[in-house]
Amino acid sequence: MSVDPFSLSGKTILVTGASSGIGRGVAVTCADQGATLIVSGRNKDRLDSTLASLSGSGHRAIAAELTNAEELKQLADTCAPIDGFFFSAGIAAIAPFRLITEKHLRSVMAIDFDAPVMLTQRLLQQRKVRAGGSIVFNTAIAVQNSPAGSAIYSAAKAALNAASRSLALEVAKDRIRVTCLQCGYVQTEMLDRLKESGMDPAELASHTPLGIGTVQDAANAAIFLLSDASRWISRTALTADGGLSLRISH
Question: N or C: which end of the chain has fewer CB within 10 A?
Fold first, then answer.
């Protein structure tokens, strides 16, 4: 009998930022693929809504503000051993370079770089990631194209990409894989907020040959990286952007 390499049956997956957007989509899709989920997010009510939407049983929600060192520690301490980890918590705050403040810099770096690094460090230190597991960081295509106003956001995601490659070497002895998922424009509440700051949805779509993606598009890519289908893939980034980064005139 053949085994589905994309199945997550029997695996426990931790998803942060699971109360909305890509994080929620990944959590729902992981459950559909048979995984037991530990979901985390800042907003307890929205997190409970995600928990209620998961198929299967045995799932758990842990509300945590990951820029708070004590809450981050508590999440790591109470997290059960996992086979996969998708870090999706983050913000995409926009600010022209000449208007960047120290507050803006610190707040973006705190959630987009510091939090995933420190949470991963704690999980590994406590041996919470099982041998053969997969760690996936949700970065962004901004690490390559860096749109105007995204200097700190792009820098934080680029730093996470670089850190992941070093980490992958350190955990390879346990057959743990480390990758990044670089998404382009995906229809989420975060994208809606960017539109409110002046971005034109039609213009965004015009730069993407396959159009703006859906949360399910991103979730499907994440499932590949979390599943055994990617067992020989590590220390790299998967770009899922509808062709945005390699667009040419036509």
Answer: N
